[in-house]
Design a protein that fits this description.
It is built from five helices and 13 strands. It is an alpha+beta fold. A hairpin with a 2-residue loop joins strand 10 and strand 11. It is globular. The protein binds zinc ion.
């Protein structure tokens, strides 16, 4: 797990190491909507929560749809989908809370998990190209009373992300985010954070596709792969 300290909280980005899954899901697969054994995924999730010092009942997540909707959490989830396969999840790609000790989780396997934190609030965003193009970063930053800092987790790099013209067109207004058909999603996230007034940005700068030893990659593994997680939480002050 890669941890990043932020104002008032911490972000943690899981790797594929330290879990119990096998085959293409080896080993710390946190994605239950895969062909992996759900019981193994639940054990992996228990381990990931423990590594972050969080209890599984206090981790909130959603059903990700590459959109820009956010859910604000005023308490822990009533039906904790992190622990229970089949729980009803809101179709959201971002989470926000001001509660301490409540983990906000997104899953990814090339998309970027992006954490935002100010001393009073934290947010976790699932940022693929669609969400970034549609303004998820701006939408989340607007919910903060004070400008947040950000942490960008592992995701597919410009080295490995060839895209079609419709994707390039979505970012035609941004300088330096593409080289030919190779899109640098990380550079897009930096640009969107800058536009949203986020000045401090920590970046783990790791490409999921280049590092099969560390990460699952949807593109590299042709869709048969696991999911890593990005988690953020406020620390009690
Ligand atoms: Zn790469």
């Amino acid at each position: 797990m890669i941890e990043v300290g932020l104002p008032g909280g911490r972000a943690a980005f899981t790797t594929r190491r330290g879990g119990v899954s096998e085959g293409p899901y080896k080993s710390l697969n946190l994605g239950i909507l895969t062909d992996d054994d759900p019981e193994r995924v639940i054990e992996n999730r228990r381990r990931a929560a423990a590594a972050a010092g969080l209890t599984p009942e206090r981790i909130a997540m959603g059903w990700q749809v590459h959109g820009t909707e956010l859910r604000e959490w005023g308490g822990p989830p009533e039906d904790p989908g992190y622990q229970r396969p089949g729980a009803t999840l809101d179709r959201v790609d971002g989470h926000l809370t001001s509660l301490a000790g409540l983990g906000l989780l997104v899953l990814a396997a090339d998309c970027l998990p992006v954490a935002l934190a100010s001393p009073a609030q934290v947010a976790m965003l699932h940022c693929g190209w669609r969400g970034l193009a549609a303004g998820i970063v701006q939408r989340a930053a607007e919910r903060f009373a004070d400008p947040p800092a950000a942490a960008i987790g592992p995701g597919i790099g410009g080295c490995c992300y060839e895209v079609g013209p419709e994707v390039l067109a979505a970012f035609a207004d941004l300088d330096g985010v593409a080289d030919g058909r190779m899109l640098d999603l990380r550079a897009v996230a930096h640009a969107k954070l800058r536009q949203a007034g986020v000045e401090r940005v920590e970046d783990v700068d790791l490409c999921t596709s280049c590092r099969p030893d560390l990460f699952f990659s949807h593109r590299r593994d042709h869709g048969i792969t696991g999911r890593q997680g990005g988690i953020v939480w406020r620390e009690a002050s």
